[in-house]
Amino acid sequence: MKKLFLLIFAVLAAAVLNAQTMREEIAADPDLAGGIYTAYRVTENAVPEPPRGYKPFYISHYGRHGSRYQTAGEKYEQPRVLFEQAAKDGKLTPLGLDALRRVLIIADDAYMRYGDLSKRGEREQMGIAERMAKSYPQVFKSKDSQHVTCLASPSVRCVMSMAAFTERLKELYPHLELSRSASEHDIDITRPEKNMNIFYDKARKIAKDYQKQHTEDRQFISRLFTDYDYAVKLICDTYKVDNTYAFMGNMHDLAIIVQNFDDLPSLHDLFTEEERYQMWSFFNIRRYLSYGPSLDFGDIRNQDGKLLLRDIVERADKVIAGETPEEAATLRFGHDSAVIPLLAILHAEGCDGRIAFSEIERLPEVWCDSRVTSMSVNVQFIFYRNRKGDVLVRLLHSEHDIRVPVETSQYPFYRWEDFRRYCVQQCRPEAR
What percent of the chain has pLDDT over 90? Predict the structure, then answer.
């Protein structure tokens, strides 16, 4: 009972801390308002020494593609058309004119590259590969384990991410034999979204309606245009809607994607601190309802994560049993739509918050997209073994150890027998 009380207290304390700090974190670093568009961040993380006698021998990995462009061309073209027309009509403020200059640079750079991996995205993947290879040399130097299986979603940005990652791995360990595939055959592993598609449109509509009802954009529009009524009509005509909320959201989409590139101008100054936080909050709600562990849709969504977790367990079982002794690592490259439910069904710390839409104002207390998934977010299972054949495993979230509710006396290491049993339980149809 005492342990249960301490666990509940820790969870509540973490929730309060999240509520207090997310606004502060975004105020201190506007790029964190990017949510899933937040560029991958590397922070120091020393690899812990395993218990005596244990050495790493296998790695199972799922990683999202690296930093990219916005996937829809209209995200760039609609603001460009709108600002150009307003400039022609003499309706832009000095800030609006400068916003036009920057939007043109951003749109020109993105032209016909929608959804493509950026140069930064390539570097992110190569960096993750290098740190993996150098942190666990025993895995890749072994004479017995020289094969790496690589599976990617057929999306070009995922294939390019796999290419960048494996290129660096091969440079460091030329003897490795790599098998690479980007086929629909493996889509339930690399992009498991069948169950998400059942409710996606409904969830997205709920989130958009909420954003429409709560967006306060008059001050934002008035900073850019000299005539508010003119701007409203132009926005509605350009976006073919009867309201203006989509324009502010679109401009925020451009502001947060810029961090994924090296030399594009910032748009953060177009927003006040409060506006920026609100835009992040709307996007966080949309991602949570569409992809996350919400009480409204999470039970359906989590079924997709079970497909990936089952593959991770089954492949690890074969390596441990000696059925595929040559396998050093299994690398999967896909999307945040797989990482989010995987972390949720594992009940990884900070990634499994469950509330109903009726309590959506509390969402920053329990689930934050910027923390759960960024560009190049990855989940790594590092397996260790001793001479007796006993196996331990570590779970890493973007190269940092993360807790799951599995008992262990030597965190961040878990007995594979216990961890596996927990994973199998989570893969059952009724498990949340």
Answer: 90
Note every long-range contact of 351-354, with CB atoms under 8 Å and residues 24 or more positions apart, other chains counting.
Answer: 351/293, 351/397, 351/402, 352/293, 353/15, 353/293, 354/293, 354/294, 354/295, 354/298, 354/432
Question: Domain residues of the chain, as ranges?
Answer: 2-68+117-197+289-426, 74-115+206-272
For 2-68+117-197+289-426, CATH number out of 3.40.50.970, 3.40.50.880, 3.40.50.1240, 3.40.50.150 equals 3.40.50.1240
**Res. 432 pLDDT band, cuts 50 70 90:** low
What are the tens digits of pLDDT across the range 311-334? 999 999 999 999 999 999 999 999
Most confident of 15-29, 89-103, 143-157: 89-103
